[in-house]
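Handover notes (outgoing to incoming on-call)

Open items:
1. 14 kDa phosphohistidine phosphatase: sequence verified, structure written out, both below. Nothing else pending on this one.
2. Nothing else urgent.
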Amino acid sequence: MADVLNKVPDVEIDSDGKFKYILVRLKVKDGEAHKDIVRGTKSAEFHNHIFEKVNPAMQALGLECVCLGGGKIEHSNQEKKLRVFGESTGYGKADHAVTVEKLKPVFKDYEITWSDDKK
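14 kDa phosphohistidine phosphatase structure tokens:
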């Protein structure tokens, strides 16, 4: 069942712009195996809109989801920069350092930064 975790991409975010994101812990039901994933999109007005899409998809794979927090990502595809900041009113602030570590392998040639700034 743990191999199901490996099939879920660590990161799925919009290719450009400023948008909300959440850090989600996926766990195998009745097991110890888990991993954290990052999901973010401009189409989400609120952080819970992202979770409402992720949760059913992961449950269909037999995984449990817990939102660890949220924030915003500013993605400049042209400049190859990602900035992680802010917080979610509903879920609290994600650990941006963890988010950045998830982003690094996917965006190898990017400058990736994070801050506790809200804007």
